[in-house]
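Team,

Forwarding the record for the chain on the shared tracking sheet. I've put the sequence and predicted structure together so nobody has to dig through attachments.
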Amino acid sequence: MQRYLALCTGLLIALATQHWLDATLPLAQKIAAQLLGETWYRIELQSTHVGFMHNRAYRDGLGQWHFASTTHFLLGENTPTTISKHLVFEAGNNNRLQQASYANKQNGQTLSTLIKRLDDSYNVSLDRGSQVSQMVVDWTFELADFVTLEMWLASDQPAAGAEKLAPSPDFERLRITQRPYRVLDKNETGYLVENSAPLAANRIQLGSNFRPTQLHMAGIFQMVATNEADAIALQSLRRKTTYQFPLDQRLDQHTSLANLRLAIESSAAVSLPRELNLSAGYVGSQDNGD
């Protein structure tokens, strides 16, 4: 009985401690914690399945916050486009942006941007296919900036018609832009918000955890949260996005691997990285260009 009481007491203390720690977390980290996990979206163009979007948020062994997104669509035969983004914020209290990558693959060409934090600025590596360059940008961007919209909705609970500017990195123009959002409705699912766009406004339905459940992009594309199998249901998409490759040798104790480096051999018609570097909780790629 004493051992049972001691166990219960220990559990109660642990729960109380965790509750206290959660209560003292900055709001940005509380919101970010709700975004952890992955979500698949089916992309449709006039009810025709043309692609998918996959969002994944996680924390690595160092406590850093990772937000990765891949969008793949096929509007015409043999014209696939894949856009990927990956932002990494440091652990601790400030949660400054540590690193960000952006890649746009289409027509057999990849345009990529890699941003790494220096002391008070960021080094930018630009790969535009025939031209590779580097530059330094003076950015200030933290986790709280990344979840500005969600923090505003959680703390202010704005009514329909309320507006908010949220900072967002522009990887093509290499600047931090202010994206305008407007609340359209507060419904059973969560908030319905609108973001202005050149052709028509984007409408985003957010769930109670602030993850999008539906997106209407510029009045043209519709994205609906679903499962992986449905998101990549088209055969043309499946071959492109399952990322399953046969290996030329056996991996012993594969469940215990901490790091793995793979060289990829593929036909020129398939746009794949030359090399994959994998570690627990992270997947990276590198194109050596040789």
